[in-house]
UniProtKB/TrEMBL annotation:
Naturally occurring in which organism (per UniProt): Ectopseudomonas composti
Co-factor: note: Binds 1 Mo-molybdopterin (Mo-MPT) cofactor per subunit.
Family: Belongs to the MsrP family.
Keyword flag Zinc: no
Cofactor(s) listed: Mo-molybdopterin
Residue span, Oxidoreductase molybdopterin-binding domain: 113-271
GO molecular function: metal ion binding; molybdopterin cofactor binding; oxidoreductase activity, acting on a sulfur group of donors, quinone or similar compound as acceptor
Binding positions (Mo-molybdopterin): N94, Y97, E98, C152, T187, N237, R242, S253, I254, K255
Functional note: Part of the MsrPQ system that repairs oxidized periplasmic proteins containing methionine sulfoxide residues (Met-O), using respiratory chain electrons. Thus protects these proteins from oxidative-stress damage caused by reactive species of oxygen and chlorine generated by the host defense mechanisms. MsrPQ is essential for the maintenance of envelope integrity under bleach stress, rescuing a wide series of structurally unrelated periplasmic proteins from methionine oxidation.
Record-listed E.C. numbers: 1.8.5.-
Entries under PANTHER family matching the protein: PROTEIN-METHIONINE-SULFOXIDE REDUCTASE (PTHR43032), PROTEIN-METHIONINE-SULFOXIDE REDUCTASE CATALYTIC SUBUNIT MSRP (PTHR43032:SF3)
Gene that this sequence comes from: msrP
Protein name per UniProt: Protein-methionine-sulfoxide reductase catalytic subunit MsrP
Amino acid sequence: MLIRVPPSSRALESEVTPESVYLSRRKLMQGSLALAAMAAMPGWARAEAQGAYADVEPAKAPGWFDEKLAHAHWQAITAEGESITPFKDATHYNNFYEFGTGKGDPAANAGKLQVEPWTVMVDGEVGKPGRYSIEDLVKPHAFEERIYRLRCVEAWSMVIPWLGFPLADLLKQVEPTSAARYVRFETLVDREHMPGQRSGFSLIDWPYVEGLRLDEAMHPLAFMVVGMYGRVLPNQNGAPLRLVVPWKYGFKSIKSIVRISLVDEAPKTTWERIAPNEYGFYANVNPQVDHPRWSQATERRLPSGLFSPNVIDTRMFNGYEEVADLYAGMDLARYY
Ligand SMILES: Nc1nc2c(c(=O)[nH]1)N[C@H]1C(S)=C(S)[C@@H](COP(=O)(O)O)O[C@H]1N2
Ligand SMILES: [Mo]
């Protein structure tokens, strides 16, 4: 009888290698020797050393970022059994309509955006309103690395190692008043550097707006992001400061934030304004509630191609079921 031996599981190799390289590299960086060596490096070299894959483009990061990076808590949250999406895919297949609606437009057009200096207006129902420099917003918080699944409403997904700190910590810093019930976020408007905002045909009434209920915003998984893949955030991914809410569809994870307001009513969000029957305020990942024009039961995990479509089942709350308590008693088909 002929026994066929598969040639060293070639099919899996491309998926497994990046994660193992990434993780072993990350472990190395946690060693005290590596940390000491890194502290002596100039910022850009340190950024390169942090680059986990060969394809991570090094970048010069602002001082506030490098200082925090040296003390980051690596892999504070991991994604069990998942392969990390290659940096190249995470930075060249983007949604950021301010730079155009094509998936390659943000990478092509975001490079010229000025992200330094950067300020964020904090207003509304807070004890400490004001225009904060990004340095002052970041200073009190330690960086964590969190490897999260990102599920776009368009039924594709990635696994991305983010760097940042809990949104709850930022909110506590500015002291919400007892009247605060929702958090509203706004993206930069810059018609000169954001070509999508110059288009006369855009559906979007700028700025891009997103929002969370205050208890959702305070959930420990809600994350303020300033970096990814061990380096500063690329412009196309929402530099210098974005939100990442891993249990919700990607459009909730608003990029390049310039304003955070604590408010008493649910803000009207960009996608609700465009198509309220298709995109709701909650936008929790839910395989049982389909988009009116397509199923949400499965997703294409990137990288995916014609011959390896890599389709997987979508999980309730994108697999972050610890958030279920936030929605106890709510009809999630109605509050989609
Ligand atoms: N300001 C702004 N934020 C945005 C978007 C956008 O068009 N503008 N697109 C959203 C969508 S639909 C997704 S899926 C994620 C994609 O994030 P990524 O490009 O870092 O993967 O960003 C979200 N944040
Ligand atoms: Mo999305």
